[in-house]
Design brief:
Structural class: alpha/beta
Number of strands: 10
Strand order of the largest sheet: 6-7-8-3-9-10
Radius of gyration: 18 Å
Helix content: 25-40%
Number of helices: 11
Distance between the termini: 16 Å
Length: about 260
């Protein structure tokens, strides 16, 4: 598969604090690529940089072979890149229907809204039932569905999905990830998925990257990462963190 998105040697900082340090990754078209890492690893910074909310100080981001680093977020939406941020960031005092319309604000073909709305209703029928309800009164799982559905209204080719399982019950996590897999398989949507729930992410992903203190320390096919002793120990909770495991991790073994 050809790369839809290519990131090379990306560095992003908050003032003097370097948050991303030489990050490189590739996202094939039609794939799900997950980025794993603990709190403070730089995952959200990576997503904000890719979506144009932060400008990198070094490196390049190419989308369909076109340089997009430093491009404004609204321009990136028009290019086909949508960011569903951590914490959902829906408009709580607007109705579900109004939130969905906001997702299509950058589209030039206003007549195409109906097709996207039909798609959204197919994948998220509960939102059709709640269309007149204030978004802030939805459950956490329904709000996450709304955030993804709002992103779909822009008809993206690439969705940047940041921590969709955050604060959800295991049943809702399973439901959300089933929808993510369906959108990829049935609609051909390319997804970059940032997650702390490594098991759920690797079960739907094609390829994974592990981010630690702003650096990529490991990457490989999802099934290979799932079988890795390091991933099992640090992210899947098979064993406690041993000094031996910490030594293995610090070798920063990378699969190519």
């Amino acid at each position: 598969m050809n790369p839809l998105l290519t990131v090379h040697n990306l560095e992003t900082s908050y003032g003097p604090v370097m948050a991303l340090r030489g990050v490189s990754l590739s996202v094939p078209e039609g794939s799900i690529v997950t980025v794993l890492g603990g709190n403070g690893a730089g995952k959200t910074t990576l997503m904000r940089t890719l979506s144009g909310a932060l400008a990198p100080r070094k490196g390049s981001v190419r989308y369909r072979s076109k340089r997009i680093d430093g491009m404004e977020p609204d321009r990136l939406v028009r290019e086909g890149i949508v960011h569903v941020p951590e914490g959902r960031e829906i408009f709580p005092f607007m109705s579900v229907a109004e939130n969905l319309r906001m997702g299509a604000y950058a589209r030039r073909d206003r007549s195409g809204w109906a097709a996207e709305l039909e798609l959204v209703n197919e994948y998220f029928p509960i939102l059709a039932e709640r269309r007149r309800q204030e978004a802030g009164t939805l459950s956490g799982g329904e709000q996450q569905m709304l955030a993804i559905a709002r992103g779909l209204m822009a008809r993206p080719a690439l969705m940047l999905l940041d921590e969709p399982s955050l604060g959800l019950s295991p049943v809702l996590v399973s439901e959300i990830f089933t929808i993510i897999r369906r959108l990829n398989q049935e609609q051909g949507l390319t997804i970059v998925l940032v997650e702390q729930n490594a098991r759920a992410a690797l079960e739907v992903a094609d390829h994974g990257y592990v981010l630690e203190i702003g650096r990529i320390v490991m990457d490989g096919p999802a099934e290979r990462l799932m079988a890795s002793e390091d991933i099992r120990e640090f992210y899947l909770g098979r064993t406690s963190e041993s000094s031996r495991g910490r030594r293995r991790w610090r070798r920063r073994k990378t699969w190519r």
